[in-house]
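Protocol step 4 of 5: obtain the predicted structure for the target chain.
Materials: sequence only (see below). No template structures provided, no constraints applied. The aim of this step is simply to have a reference model before the mutagenesis design in step 5. Sequence pasted as it appears in the construct record:
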Amino acid sequence: KEKGRPWEMSKGFDQSAPISAIVPVKKNAHPVTGRIWLSVNGVIKQDGDLQQMTWNVAEVVANLSTYVELAAGDLIFTGTPEGVSAVVPGDRLSGSIEGVGELTLTIGEGE
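Step 4 output (structure tokens):
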């Protein structure tokens, strides 16, 4: 039986994880509420609120910092609202965290 790749490879491959502009914590603190959503080709696929997280942003940072040294600009990837699905080249994705930032991109062809 062929073994699959570790699940984190679905989020951490070359040229993955595009992000919006980084917002310093001094400017935005650690938001505890705010809509978080993703649309694919104009159709909302994921829609939730930060307050639905098991641990809030401050708790995630505090806990993770007991395991690894965190520095300004580090990115922490957590789960997402339900609705995850496959995307294909040409799909246009838009996503936002209310009060933090928004990002829109088009999936390109793989190598």
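Step 4 remarks: The two ends are 27 Å apart (CA to CA). Helices lie at 25-28, 57-64.
Proceed to step 5.
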